[in-house]
Amino acid sequence: MWLRQLRYEPVILGQRQRLCSLAEEIEEEAAAERARAGKPVLGVAAILAQDPQHRPEHLDRSPAPLFLVPPAGIAWHLVLQLRAATVGGPPQRPLSPRGGAVI
Asked: Model's pTM, two decimal places?
């Protein structure tokens, strides 16, 4: 297996074994999916014969998220407004975005 050939010394043995087992599991799932769909493995020659600049006619897109995350500055003001609304008033001393009081 290709992952076993990697030699990263900083990786702890347990992590390496876990990565190997995850990679093997992914390979097994992919092989099972190919078998169910009846897709053969392309092979090196077929992969190299493909045009690298080819663009598909239709892109599968995921639906838009239900909640969009605002930029950090706006998010902080929303947090302050939420605190003011739920606690019953603005904080006594303004808070910095890191959570400490501004002096």
From this structure: 0.38
